[in-house]
Amino acid sequence: MINTDKIQLNWPLTNVQIKGILQKKGERVVYDIASDNGSFIMKVADESKTKNELAKELEIFDFLNANNFSNIPKLLKTITGKNFIEDEGKFLIMMEKVEGIHPEPNPKTYAKLGKLVARLHSVKLYPHKTSFTFASELPKLKENIKKFPFGQEYKKLVDSVPNFDLFSHSLIHTDIAPLNVIEKKNSDIIILDWDDAGIGVSLFDLGFSLIQQFVWEDKEFFDEDSAKSFYSSYFSLRSLPEGEKEQIFQAGLFYALMYLPYENYDKAWKRIKFALDNREKIVSSIY
Hints:
By secondary structure, this protein is an alpha+beta fold. It contains 10 helices and 11 strands.
């Protein structure tokens, strides 16, 4: 059982208070922690994670801070210098509580995110690959075909996307968007949810927002200004190998197809159809 004594026994904190639960999904819980040393969050790790998997996953925090990428929360080490503890079969992680807001999804925000993604992709020598690959996700997409009344159309789109694992790789996050970042009072952006980060397909970070964030199916609207801000900011700092820029739309389609089962699928399918019908305009925002 998690209590203040256990926290103070394992982390360098005094006068600890457990203020409440910020998030709960199955066994995965996030606690709001106050102390004389500041505000923190304590996470109970996903029960599917092994000890070795979690240790490897958490290396990203120290690695990025050591490489001058400060747009990531700071882990609080235990009294013995560890990144987490094991308690009653669960893994507990403590990190700083980032105070701020999710920024508005507008061109100003996406200009910041574009530069952050480019900077992340430019970080070298991270030792671990992401588990999120084209090969890992393709069987799930093929399984989805049976779930939808538009299954055959869905299949054609799945069959149309290239094998992204053959394209260039870098250190990726996999889903940087306004809801996955916090903007602090000083306007700095802190990126959250690094569970899937690792060396992977650069196009995934560039494709994630194209349809999922910039297309509004309810308004039948493409946020061209935000898209242009994101991509122009990214490409002001970093380029892609020849021929890869042309694949960003397909990467966006891959993400939209992948997320479809987790949404209202009629609305998500409408978003995909709108993107396909307006492909030329959407692609032009990348250049």
